Fold this protein.
Amino acid sequence: MMLTIHAITAFDDNYIWFIQAENSTGVLIVDPGDAAPAIEAIKKLKLDPVAILITHGCHDHVDGIAELLSHYELPVYGPSNEFIPHLSHALTQGDTFTISDEFPEINVLDIPGHTRGHIGFVIEDKLFCGDTLFAAGCGRTHGGQPEVLFTSLEKIANLPEQTQIYCAHEYTAANLRFAETVEPNNSHIQQRIIDTKSLRQQAKPTIPFSLALELKTNPFLRCGEVEVVKAAEQQLGERVNSKAATFRTLRAWKDRF
Ligand SMILES: [Zn+2]
């Protein structure tokens, strides 16, 4: 099936993703943190909402649900392990569901760490990962265990390399500044900085991006690379002896960056 994905901007740097079915006006709405831009886009693009998909319970992902439901009758799919307002279908790792004949099957990944119940949606070759992985970066852990987030990122890294990733924030340029600091000699990061600047100058999203590109440029997915390990050790002032320890060091470094 050929899906069309629309990026709806909300707040300063959020994206609400619209997944439109082929030859149809039916659309799935991912993480509507604000109803106003979503409703405006529905009207402008002449779409018919079919369902809401929620990756996690942060306000900037769920605060538009109530108002959308006052305009449209929609099921709300989201994680079973955290509070989601108006949730009708609670999901967890390995769940597979179909919303209607128009849409392909959707698979659920548990990817906790940014929040404890965070899930991702895999639809054909696309992953909607909320605030778990960002272009050249990853979510904050909010005092949770970095190892939990690290395990989730490894799960994402094991998807097919051609997977197109749709995250929920436009943080790419700032993330690349950190990536460049960690790996100053990585030419893929340098190229991505150029490409990102060009897209942003045209006011275009830098998302989606392929997992293949992430594996070459995202330090948080490169915790086994010699240069990344060295940078982490220099930052910490002692040796790190596992990928998870490198990740923990990078995450703490980025929090101060
Ligand atoms: Zn969040």
Remarks:
- DSSP finds nine helices and 14 strands in the chain.
- The mean pLDDT is 97.
- The radius of gyration is 18 Å.
- The first helix runs from residue 35 to 44.
